[in-house]
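Next comes this protein.

***
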Amino acid sequence: MRDLRNNNFSNEATVDGHANSQAVVKSFLSNVFTYMAGALAITGVLAYWFSSSPALMSTLYNPETGMKMLGYIVMFAPLIFVLVMSFSFNKLSSFALLALFVAYSAVMGISLSFIFLAYTAGSITSTFFITAGTFSAMAILGYTTKQDLTKFGSILIMGLIGIIIAMVVNMFLNSEIMDYIISCIGVLIFTGLTAYDVQKLKRIGSGAEYGTESTNKLAIMGALNLYLDFVNLFLFLLRLFGDRR
């Protein structure tokens, strides 16, 4: 009878431990998606605000002389923000990391205001919803699948490096066919990376401790990764299906 009670207690502890682990994972991912959604909202509002204001756009771009200095700064600043957040992760507090993420999403919004000059508002809106649907489907797949996506992640990251190089080369070639191929591959890569990143974050969440400083920092960096997946997927889809002005 004693052994039976001990076994039952052990089983109950295992079940309780699993339930607690699942709760931590869900809480962690909830924070990740909340940060991501907030960043996307900031980006969207600022992109639309700048694009709808000739006065604000004139600080970035002159139709006669081209891009202004501030325009170039806004274009390359997001990369600097990502590098600072990545390499200073251990040194920064979660508050500082979040502040950088908010600033990054704001600058990214200003940078993306240029798409409203190149594409119609209707095609931007429709592409956004297509991106949201695709992203959601792959996020669910990444969360629910039992398949280990680690090996696919390595391939996708190598593919990402490849298309970055191809995009740089095509800046000089200016080939429409190559641009179309790059866009198609880009959609496939960031669709796959969405599932891969969500699965990776699920694993991180399962080993995280609820409410700690390090867990909050991991959630912010996870949100940054998913934000990048979403924005890049959106931009590649827009290049494929967007109606140019």
